[in-house]
Amino acid sequence: MKSARRILWAAALTYVAAALMSLLNITRWIRVLRFLEAVVSRKVMTGIEIVQRGLALQSSFISPNWREEALNDHLRGKGFG
Q: Are the CB atoms for 80 and 73 separated by under 8 Å?
């Protein structure tokens, strides 16, 4: 009888765990849908936009002669950074 209770208790815990996971899954979908709504309404930038803006920002700080300047710095002992 004791082993049957242990088996039933394990089965009950399995059902509880499955119910909790389904609740977590629902909240995950709600977060995804809210994010998509924000992207559509242009409140949030997408990953591609972040990369594009980052590259544009980065290229505005890089001098046209950056390779030559980096080589000269390295030869002077300043390193690449």
A: yes
